[in-house]
């Protein structure tokens, strides 16, 4: 096994490890952002529901 072949194997291995680490960080931040957006969406839906209930109460009182 030549030195250049071994160097290529090390380089390819290092690049694969780098890509796995990069993909892991990307997935982590994607999931973190997704969960944040889902919490915000739920809060908006709760706010809309509260506004509808409030509007319904005002209609019944009149």
Keywords:
mainly alpha; about 60 residues; rod-shaped
End-to-end separation in angstroms reads 90 Å
Please state the CA-atom Rg, rounded to the nearest Å.
27 Å
Percent helix:
over 70%
Number of strands: 0
**What summary fits the major beta sheet?**
none
Put the structure in a nutshell.
By secondary structure, the protein is an all-alpha fold. It contains 1 helix and no strands.
Provide a descriptive summary of the structure in words.
With 62 residues, the chain is mostly helical. It has a domain at 25-62. 95% of the residues lie in helices and 0% in strands. The chain has one helix spanning 3-61.
Task: Please render the helix and strand layout as text.
Elements: H1 3-61
